[in-house]
Amino acid sequence: MKSQSKSNEDELDILAQADINQSVVDSIVERHKDIEQTLEQERQLYLDLANAQPTGVYRLRVFRSNKYDETKWRSSSDAPYIVEFANTRFCELLNMGLEKFQENPAIINDLIFEPDKESFIQKNIESNRDLMPFVWEGRLSVRNEIIWGHFESTPRPIPNGDVIWTGAFFDITKRKKEQQEIQAKNRELQMVNAEKDKFFSIIAHDLKSPFNAIIGFTKLLLDEIRLNNIEGIEKYAEIVLDSSNSAFDLLTNLMSWARSQTGRLTFKPESFDLLELINESKNVFSHIAEGKKIDIRVDIDTELPVCADISMISTVLRNLISNAIKFTHSGGQIIIRSEQLAHHLKVVVSDNGIGITESVIDKLFRIDEKYSTSGTQNEQGTGLGLILCKDFVERHEGQIWAESSEGLGSNFIFTLKNPKP
């Protein structure tokens, strides 16, 4: 009986011990589950944080055996690395699914804009060779558009000789465009300033000439007055008058141009009959034209309704008519005509004067080019009038140009937009 009792007790001890071991196992299993759940929660947290970044984030593993092989860095199908991670933003910026990128990491070479590809490849090779941070800016072709990207990543060697690269990719297209616009504006400003510097040096030179003539011939005029030489007095007085008129015309145009460039010349379009303004401008020069026996004819037989700044268009007409008289021989003819186009009114001031060579025509409306020549009776010009005409016509969204042949006369043409009904 005692032996049977002992056997029962052993069995109970074994069962109790088994219950204890199972409890320990269950406890360990539960702890493992808690740890796995915590790790999963943390993994999901870090994944959410990475995917919430406004920049692309990635992690690459460059294999030890391939990192110096230039052919692999140039490949579009056999990359020397694998993609271990890329966040959602990285895939969005490059318009590529993560699985596709992981299947063929070298596809990124195909995205680099061809002119920038060599610098991208060389930078990869150098950074892996020297284990230095990879920093590269360049253009990529994404969605059939060119974008600017900035890569920045740092290396971390691991014991087996591979290198882990963790980096970020930024879309800097907007910043690059702004920089390019600023650079373009700076170049434009530098060019404009250079043109204006040259222009003012030309004006300074042109102002000296008439004033030197006025001062010099005024002294001669005083001498003739002392000698009571009426013929000499009249001759020098005419020269002084011509020089004074030339200086006055230059100053008038210069002030108008300066006001237009500094924004002090207000653009005030209004409706009026251009034919009436043409006739008024013609009458301003009637006495000068009569003195040279030049016939000015307005070949327009209908009203020309326009919406424009009367003062500016008047300045344009006066300069063009004055130039035509200046370069037309005695007994010549000037014709002012118009042509109604679909969206514009074209006005032409024609003369049968000395004409202009083709090489000079391109210089007529440029502020950085000096072109001024004497008229058929040695009338002096400044070259500023046509620059002013160009400025005023373009303010009306029109165009102005010249057509001419040397010895056969010239046509100066400008357009104005038709007024809206």
TrEMBL record:
What SMART domains does UniProt report for this protein, alphabetically?
Answer: HATPase_c (SM00387), HisKA (SM00388)
Task: Give the species this sequence originates from.
Answer: Ancylomarina euxinus
Tell whether Phosphoprotein is among the UniProt keywords: yes
Q: Does the keyword Kinase apply?
A: yes
Note the PROSITE patterns from the entry: HIS_KIN
Q: Where is the Histidine kinase domain?
A: 202-420
Catalyzed reactions per annotation: ATP + protein L-histidine = ADP + protein N-phospho-L-histidine
The name this protein carries in UniProt is: histidine kinase
- Record-linked CDD domains: HATPase, HisKA, PAS
Reported EC number(s) for this entry are 2.7.13.3
Q: Which InterPro entries match?
A: HATPase_C_sf, HATPase_dom, His_kinase_dom, HisK_dim/P_dom, HisK_dim/P_sf, PAS, PAS-like_dom_sf, Sensor_HK_Regulatory
Q: What terms describe the molecular function in GO for this protein?
A: phosphorelay sensor kinase activity
Which keywords fit this entry according to its UniProt record?
Kinase, Phosphoprotein, Transferase, Two-component regulatory system
Q: Which domain of life is it from?
A: Bacteria
